[in-house]
Amino acid sequence: MRNSLLVVALTALVAGCASVKVADFDSIQEYTLKNKAGMEVRLTNYGATITAINTADRNGNMADITFGYNDVSGYMNAVDKPYFGAVVGRYGNRIAKGKFTIDGEEYELATNNNENHLHGGVIGFDKVVWDAEVIDKNTIRFTYLAKDGEEGYPGNLSIAVTYTLTEENEIQIDYFATTDKATPVNLTNHAYFNLKGEGEGDILGHELMINAKGFTPVDKGLIPTGEIAPVAGTPFDFTSAKPIGRDIGQTDQQLEYGLGYDHNFVLDKEGKEGQMTLAATVYEPTTGRLMEVFTKEPGVQFYCGNFLQGNLVGKSGKAYIHRGGFCLETQHYPDSPNQPNFPSTILRPGEDYESRTVYRFSVR
Ligand code: GLA
């Protein structure tokens, strides 16, 4: 990562939005985790971002299967804010009109997605420099203190995100946070995957299973209506694995609103709320790569790169085309602070926010 030329750009970015002060530009670095099997994950403390994931296909050939840039300026300047590989927050996903009330007090957040708040605001956790602590060759911990009032959120929120590359070819992400005022918190990672390799065409042939009998339908602005609708008989039924592209062209109002899949699925926790359960599996038939996602979270946003248009060029010089990557963002449901029937996302002083997601890679 080359940092020196970026100081000016970053200063401008920060000056434009007063609430966050990025103090130390030279502290932006890239780190590499490796395991004995040869899997390699690269990360940067800019946004606590995964920049590369190198895994083997069924013939042992390695490829980088996640989107990213070679240079931190790519992450900073990216148009359309795709959030490649970053931790998003303080509230991942949308909050309607950027407003919510806690204990009778109304809060107003930055609105950065038309009239709504998305992924923590104008300078969310994906656009700040985190502190990094290398624990060992498999583990790195990023920490960040989000100030009271940052992007409009109440409370100083102290966050730690720990990435571990296990010897079982898993990326384990542990999220931890505490606050000094009641605040909504919803942390996730926004990695884009293409199991053929980043920039290798579209992902419509990937076979996806989502462990969810229900999903949260949305309005035009992608804010949940509050209903939990059954997926059965709709294009949203991924309870048995099917190619992502199989039903994506169907005439369906929800697909229209999302321009494809861009929806929160309600995971079948089988009474195991807050425990690790299978969220999804994705299999890519030509390379044999398989990714399994496990999480403590109650939901997962399945987004299939509908906003990608081929204008962003990634680290190996290939364009990231429309539906060239997908995200499985494990999370609480969107707009929970305004949805009394959704599991609560409010963290209070004295409580621990603790969550874990595992992406496991193998071949078939
Ligand atoms: C999330 C949202 C999408 C889009 C992407 C980033 O997944 O749900 O609507 O904003 O992030 O492009």
Give a description of the structure:
The structure is a single chain. The chain is mainly beta and 364 residues long. 6% of the residues lie in helices and 35% in strands. It has three helices and 26 strands. The protein has helices spanning 7-15, 72-77, 253-258; strands at 30-34, 40-44, 49-56, 62-64, 87-88, 94-95, 99-102, 105-108, 117-118, 131-136, 139-146, 157-165, 170-179, 183-184, 188-189, 207-210, 212-216, 229-230, 242-243, 262-267, 277-283, 289-295, 299-303, 327-331, 346-347, 353-363. The chain has a nine-stranded antiparallel beta sheet with strand order 10-11-12-13-26-22-21-16-19, with no helix packed on it. A five-stranded antiparallel beta sheet has the order 18-17-20-23-24, with no helix packed on it. The longest helix has 9 residues, at 7-15. The relative contact order is 0.17. Residues 1-23 have low confidence and may be disordered. The structure holds alpha-D-galactopyranose. Residues 82-83, 118, 222, 262, 301, 303, 307, 327, 329 line the site of alpha-D-galactopyranose.
Main traits of this protein?
364 residues, mainly beta, nine-stranded antiparallel sheet, five-stranded antiparallel sheet, 3 helices
